[in-house]
Amino acid sequence: MKKNNNTIAVPLKRYISQTEKKKRIFVYCSIIPVIAIFAFVRIIPICTNFVYSLFESTVVNPTQKFVGLKNFIELFHDQLFLLSLRNTTIFALFVTIFSVAIAILLAALLTTQSKLSPLYETIYFLPVITPMVPVAVVWKWIYDPTYGLLNYILSWFGISPIGWLVYPNTALIAIIIMSVWKIVGYNMIIFLVGMRDIPETYIEAARIDGASSNQVFWKVIMPLLRPILLFVFVISTINSFNVFTQVFIMTSGAQGAPGNAVRTIVFDIYENGFRYFRTGYAAAEAVVLFVIILLLTFIQFGISGKGDSSKKKRAIFRKGAVK
């Protein structure tokens, strides 16, 4: 009987191994076109941009003259670039913090499902799926100093009209508010999915141990949301540093803030590349932006890695189970 079993097992193993090989070949052949398209659309342009940043190039001849690191040296002596870097950093910092904080609060309020929960989720998510250009046009009208809805509402309280996009002190704040409103629904949905996916037994165990609602939120829910929190922070930071459309639409024309008060890095890249045709200089700016985002992403992963310990989580729930 043993011999018969062995004689049957050997062909069966060969058949299984051949089947696995065929599956792997099929999978690899399926993803090759996707990888090729991604490389053509993303990886190759990024590598080409690194090359162009070392040249004094134009649109006609991208490798006109090799200048090495001259573009980067000139970059950090350019007051417009430094101003755009400052504005972009302030914008990204406040948009990321407020969009994440408000999204967590909204997700916590909508965790308990009710009949109106789908309606609220739809209302908060509508700005996310609305294209940026019409949204920017609508908000530009809202901020209009003469006919804007915001100044009209403020007039009810006796507040004189404010040029939200005209004054340098308020222009960046106005765009930050609009951008937070645009992105908060996306972050809320992600947090909401994460909160609803937390097993109810963990929360019940904490309440049995006498934990208050605040303690359950900070000691149980937030530690379990740490991977999602990291994802949202990284995505929000990347999107915030790439801000362009709302700045371009909302500050053009008569409402544009003077003195480049809302100039951002991507806007500066656009002007140098497509207005002044200094493509090598614009490529150097893009490389700096890429490095900044990469470093911030690594820092966020590092901070999350230090605080995110699965052993700590297990210890918390073991203590709760023992008690």
Give a structural overview.
The protein is built from 14 helices and no strands. By secondary structure, the protein is mainly alpha-helical. The protein has two domains: 1-52; 70-322, MetI-like (MetI-like fold, Orthogonal Bundle). It is flat. Mean pLDDT is 82; it is low at 309-323.
- What's the CATH first level of the largest domain? Mainly Alpha
Instruction: Report the CATH topology name of the largest domain.
Output: MetI-like fold
Distance between the termini: 55 Å
Sheet bearing the most strands, described?
none
Shape: flat
| Broad structural category | mainly alpha
Q: State Rg.
A: 27 Å
* CATH architecture group name of the largest domain: Orthogonal Bundle
- Counting DSSP H or I runs of 4 or more residues, the number of helices is 14
Q: What share of the residues lie within helices?
A: over 70%
Order of helices and strands: HHHHHHHHHHHHHH
Estimate the strand proportion: under 5%
The unreliable regions are 309-323
The tally of strands reads: 0
Tally the structural domains.
Answer: 2
According to CATH, the homologous superfamily of the largest domain is: MetI-like
Q: What is the averaged pLDDT score?
A: 82
